[in-house]
Design brief:
Helix content: 10-25%
CATH superfamily of one domain: Immunoglobulins
Shape: elongated
Structural class: alpha+beta
Number of strands: 9
Radius of gyration: 23 Å
Strand content: 35-45%
CATH class of one domain: Mainly Beta
CATH architecture of one domain: Sandwich
Largest sheet: 5 strands, mixed
Order of helices and strands: HEEEEEEEEE
Number of helices: 1
CATH topology of one domain: Immunoglobulin-like
Length: about 130
């Protein structure tokens, strides 16, 4: 009886190992249309020094009508010319996330928005460089 249980346990472990190694995790890419009213952006921190060294990170999430991320979309930020943009990941990933870093040498409060193609997200973020 003990030998049987041992072999059953070993067979189960082999089956689990083969399933995990050979088949891996199931993934899909959402190709649904972007719902601009569900998509959003936020900045963190909301303020930084205007020395072209401190950065404010802007993260954009592109979501469909069900709130799921939409991948492989080129996102651009709409910022005043005084603000420098560093693209960290301008193409949305599987969760719909695109990431940018902002800096400037001109102290001011700025309104930031995001676009996908010619469509602009209705939400905006306000950041301050001092």
């Amino acid at each position: 009886m003990t030998v049987f249980l041992f072999f059953a346990l070993m067979a189960s472990l082999v089956l689990i190992y083969r399933t995990t190694v050979f088949f891996g995790k199931a993934t899909t890419v959402n190709t649904a249309p972007i719902a601009l009213e569900n998509s959003y952006l936020f900045a963190s921190p909301l303020q930084a020094k205007a020395d072209n060294l401190e950065m404010i990170r802007v993260t954009v999430f592109l979501l469909d009508g069900r709130g799921l991320g939409v991948a492989n979309q080129n996102v651009t930020l709409v910022v005043p010319t005084a603000v420098n943009i560093k693209d960290i990941n301008a193409i949305s990933d599987d969760t719909g996330k695109a990431v940018f870093d902002l800096s400037t040498s001109v102290p001011n409060q700025y309104s930031i928005s995001a676009k996908v193609g010619s469509k602009e997200l209705p939400q905006k973020a306000r950041v301050r460089f001092y």
